[in-house]
Amino acid sequence: MKKKLLAKKVVAVILMMSLLMVSTGTVFAEDVAEKTTEVEEMQNNDAVIEEDSEQNNDAIENESNSNKVEVNEGTAENPSAKEEKREFSTEEEQEVQGNSIDEISEEPKIVPVIQYEAHVQNIGWQNAVEDGTMAGTVGKALAMEGLRIELKQLDGIQGSVEYETHVQDIGWQNAVSNGELAGTVGKAKAIEAIKIRLTGEIADQYDIYYRVHSDTYGWFDWAKNGEVAGSVGFAYAMQAIEIRLYEKNSEEKPIVSGKTYLTANNMGDVIYQAHVKNVGWQSKVVDGKTAGTTGRALGIEGITLRLGEHMGGTIVYKAHVSGIGWQNEVTNGTLAGTTGQNRSMEAICVRVADGLEEKYDVYYRTHVSGFGWLNWTKNGEISGSVGYATPIEAIQVKLYEKDSSEAPETTGVSCLSRENIAEIEYQAHVSDIGWQNAKVTGEIAGTTGQNKSIEAIAMSIKKSENAQIYSGGISYKLHVSDIGWQDWCKDGSIAGAVGQGKRAEAIQIKLTGEMEKYCDIYYRAHVSNFGWLGWAKNGESAGSSGYAYNLEAVQIKVVPKNTSAPGSTSNSFKKAPPSTVSAMAMRANLYTSSTSYLILVNRSTHKVGIFQGWRGNWNNIVTWDCADGAVGTPTVEGTFRVGSRGYYFDSGASRCFWWTQFYGNYLFHSVLYNKNGTLRDGRVGMALSHGCVRLQIGNAKWIYDNIPSGTTVVVYH
Fold it and tell me: What does pTM read for this prediction?
C-alpha cells in the first residue's frame, strides 16, 4: 500500500513538473511523452500495484496527455490561447489556490438578478435598475404610477416574480408577473402600496425583500415575500422603491425594526386627521407627522385622534374654538372642533388614559398663524393660543415611553396666552418731587394737573419663575428739552436728565425677545395743555415736540400681538406746525419715508439734516456740516434709500469709517483718516469729496447706528 501511494505521488509530481515546464516554454510535447514513458515503466515494475491502481494511473496519464495536446495547440496555432488554458489547466495555479483539478473546472455560479423600472409622474418610464438600486424619486413630490418587475439569469431555476399594487381611487389590482405592468400609465393615479413574491423553485432558494418611500411618511422598513409595503387608506403616493434577492440562508438580510406599511389595522401608535378651512378632511397621519398646512393661512377647524389597535387605552382631547372657547373633552376618534361653521381651532389639549398614561407620555405641538411652530408640550397641557384670536394651522402628535431619551424638549413657549405676558415695572423722576414709587403695567407714572414734568424714567421686565412667562427685555428713550431724542436705554437704566432742570417732552418704548415676538406694547402720554394723547405702540413717539410742553405722565399696557389697542391711537404725538421750522424742514415735509427717519443733504449749504416723524410732521432732530462732492465730482442729486453699511474702507492712503450707502457707490462716511488712525483731512462745510458725503466721525457713526435701511435720502442743490 505504501508503494502504491508513493507511486501515485511520484506520478502527480512528474505530471506537475511536466506541465509547468510546458507552460513556461522550456520543453515540448516530446519531453512530456518521455516523462510519461518513465512513469509507465515504474508502474510496470511495481508488482504490488493492484489492477484498479493501474487503471487510475492510466486515467491520470490520459489526462496528462490531454493537457499536453491542449498546450501544443495553444503553442503552435494560437499563442494567446496558452494563457487562457492556464487559468483552468495548469497545476501551478491550482497548487497556489489549493484546489483540485475537478474544482477548478467547475463553472462560476450564476446568481439570479431582480430588475425593475418605474413610470413616474411628469417623467415617464425611467431606466431599469437592479438589485436594491432605487427606482423612482425622493424629494421631488412625484408619484410612482406604474411598475414592471422581472427576474434575470435564472440559469435553469424554475419560477417567476409576481406583484400587485394598490392604486389611488382603484384599490388592489390583480397580480401580474414577469415584466407586466402593475399600476397605470396615463391616468395620473399614484401607486400607494405593493406586494411582491416569488413562485416556483426560486421561492424555495431565495427571499425577496423590498421597501418603499411614500409621500408624507418617507422610507418604510423592509417587507418581504408578499407582505404589504406602503400605505392603504392614507392617500400617500408611493414615490420610490428598492428590491433585493437574498438566499434563504444569507446572513446579509436586513434586520426589520420599523413599520413596513400603514393600513387601517396597522397605522401607528397615534392616528389623527385634520379638517382644514377651504380644504376639508385631509388624509390621516401618524406618529409625529404633520396634519394641517403651513404657509397657506388656512386654519384647522376640526380634528380626530385615536390610538393604534395594538396600544390599548384611551386618548382624550379637547379644543378651544374661535367664538366658542373650550369645548368638552372627547375620546377615540370623536370630532373636536367644528366643521361647516367657519370656526378655527385656536388651542388643543391631549392626554392618554385608562392605564396607558402609566407607560406613555403624549407629546404634541402646534403651528399657529403669524407665529409658526410653538414648542412641544405634553399630557394635557395647552398648545396653541388663548386670547390671541389666531388659528392653529398644523399639529404634530407622538407617543413616547416614559423617560424616553428620544422625547423632545418641552422648554420654551408652547402656548400663547395673556397669562404668559410678563409684567412691566416703571418709575418716573418728576420735577420738584424726585423719584416716585415704581408702577406696574396699566398704572400711571408721573402726575396730572400739577404742571410738573417727567425728567427721567427707568423701566424693566419683572422676573418670573414660571417657564411659560415670555422672556425678553424693554428699551425706551426720551425727547428732552434742549437735547432732543436721546439714545436708547434698556432694562432698568435711566433715560432723561436728573438734576439738570430739563423736561421730557416725548417718549418711545419697545420690547425685545419673546415679549416683542408675542406682544404689542402700547403707551400714551399726558402733555401739558393737551392732556392725554392717543396710544402709540412698539417704538412710536408719544408726547410732543416743538411746543416746549411738559411730558407729565405715562401709562403702559401690553396686549397679545396683533390684537386691539387699549383705546384710540389717533393723535399720539403732537408736533409744532411747519411754520416754526427751517426751510430744510419745510422741504422735508414734502417727502415720505418707509421708516420713521428722513435725511436731507443740501449741496448749496453743505448741510445734512436728520428728521424723525412722518410726511407733514417731520421733526428736524439734528443738522450737521458736511463735505459733499467737489465741482468735478459732484454728489448725485435725487431721492434715494439707505442701503448697506460697514465699519471702514480704504481709498488710496486714506481710510474712511462708519460708512452708510444711499445710492450706488455714494456713501455717508467719516472725514479722511490715515490708516494708522490719525486724522488726514477733517474739513467739512465745503464741496471737496469725490462724490460721497463726509461727516465728522461721530456723526457718521450716528447714522450707521440709528438710521434704518430703507430710510429716504434726498440730495438737492
Answer: 0.51
